[in-house]
Amino acid sequence: MGWLIEVRTEKNKNSSSQHTITVVFDKRNGIDKFWSEFIFISDHTPSEKKMFRDGKVEEFYPLCIKTEGAYSKLEVVDPETGEIEYESKKFYKKNAKTLYEEDEEFHRWFDKAVDYSCKERITKGLLKVDTSRIDESHHPIATPVFEEEDSMENNQDQVIEEYEQPAAEIETPKKRGRPGRKKKTVAESTNDEFLENSSIIEE
User: Fold this and answer.
1) Does a structural domain hold residue 145?
2) What DSSP string describes 80-130?
3) Residue 161 phi, psi dihedral angles, 5° rounding
């Protein structure tokens, strides 16, 4: 098959660091997808073994490849009910990849076994992620976020409407004066003063 290589995870917001999983490396083709998945559903990862050994957890999900002497078989269990959904005929381990490539039913159930194992043993097991948070329709934060966005949009529309409305006309108070008397302009006042001074000179 090739070399068995242990790959370790790096720490991020969903998982702690140094979780280890074994992959099969071929010097011609690099990591071999089928044999890496076959090893994964045949045996527990080093991280799982350590957790079992330390007594922290019990088995997350049963191994899907069962070995009886020289023979192996694929057994897929429903993670919700614990019932066996599929059980293949017995085969030699060396013939597993050929069976995967030629038998469509085996191919389909093998892929499903990998999906189940990844979800139950890695996502809900090693990484300890609450899968209900992944589904946006059940995300506990999703609804209030959308409501807040709607509220912000409504407030923005309201501000725009108020801004676009014409400003209210402000009535300036009228100055009170004597009725019937018009205030003279500067020119009129100057002319009257000139005429008055002229009359004084003539006298």
Assistant:
1) no
2) TT--EEEEPPPEEGGGHHHHHHH-HHHHHHHHHHHHHHIIIIIIIIIS---
3) -65, -45
In a domain, 29, yes or no: yes
Give the position of tokens 């009359």.
Answer: 199
139 occurs within a structural domain: no
Running DSSP on this structure, what letter comes out for residue 131? Answer: G
Q: What b/e string do you get for 147-173 counting C-beta neighbours within 10 Å, with b at 16 or more?
A: eeeeeeeeeeeeeeeeeeeeeeeeeee
Closest-CA residue to 122 (of 16, 1, 13) = 16
Specify the pTM: 0.59
| Residue in 103, 122, 88 with CA at minimum distance from that of residue 16 | 122
Q: How many residues does the chain have?
A: 203
Structural domain total, the chain = 1
Average pLDDT of every residue of the chain: 74
Domain that holds residue 30: 3-131
Each residue of 158-176: pLDDT tens digit? 544 554 555 555 455 555 5
Chain centroid to Cα 22, Å, comes to 28
Residue 70 lies in a domain: yes
H or E element: which one contains 134? none
Between CA 132 and CA 153 the distance in angstroms is 29
